[in-house]
Amino acid sequence: MKAGAGLFSALALFLLMGAVITQRPRPKKPTRRPVPTKKPSVPKLAVPAQPEPQEPTDFPPPILGPPSVFPDCPRECLCTPDYPNSLNCENRNIRAIPVIPPRTHYLYLQNNYISEVTAEPFINATDVRWINLANNRIHRIDKKVFEKIPALLYLYVHRNHLKEVPSGLPASLEQLRLAKNRISKIPAGAFSKMGNLTLLDLYHNQLSDSDLGKNTFKDLKSLMQLNLAHNVLKKMPDGVPSGLIQLFLDRNRIDDIPKDYFRGFTHLAFVRLNYNQLSDKGVPKAVFNISSLLDLQLAHNQLASVPLFNGHLEHLHLNHNSIESINGTLICPYSLQADLSDHSLLPRLRYLRLDGNHLSPPIPLDVIMCFRHLHSIVI
Question: Is the confidence at residue 18, as pLDDT, over 90?
Fold first, then answer.
């Protein structure tokens, strides 16, 4: 009996211990998610920089010409049997001047991408008479070029990037066109010994009064046309040859004309001073009384009255000034009381432009009575 009770007690104790063990609290789960560990960053390999292209990518490829019967014709040019002395290399997208054949008299290189003119291509081109280099990107012309072509007559280098007039120009030159560059310097003696030059075009550059000395144009004895329009001049240029026929000074900042500026000009027929800063104060009373003058343009200035002019003048442009009245008696080159039955003695004015002023119709009768050859008046 005692043995059974002991066995029962031992069994009860064993079950009690198991219950205590099974009721041990479990560890609580974390409320936040564990932060993942960052993987170590692997450094990227440096990519080598691409080399710059040898020339701007906006230049289209050169255009090659068709096969030629002339073995010396450059591949990027056109040579035709009908014009054996002409070398046509215009509009070919070329960057450098090719070797010029000895037979060449006329060289056309306009509308390309040429940046520099060197002497090498002209070594055997001693008979070249005409060169057109317009509309390129030329910033330099080697003076040795002109030693190779001593018979050059016409040189066109307008619409380029030149900053000064080329040196070493040949004495044979008759026309020099340098319009629409960036020229702000004329080297001393640039036009010396150029007694054959008849046309000098420096339109639309950056020339100021200090760039034009008294002797700049001294040797240009044959000059007939001088174009200095669209620069930054404040006064009339000095030393202009007296045999000049056409003088163009539009779009500068000129506000004064010396009283005797045009004295000594024997053939001056065309004067253009549009778009300047001329007022009555800066225009002497009879400065334009020149017997050879045919066409006078003074539009877009600050004039308040009509300047006096010679009876031989045929065209007068005074539009867009500050003129409020016009007195035909004062501006008439002849007395209205004189006998003008001989029409050859009448003033020759045919065209008069006065629009853009402070005038209104009708035209004064004394103007009509004086200028009887007038065909057109714009008011």
Answer: no
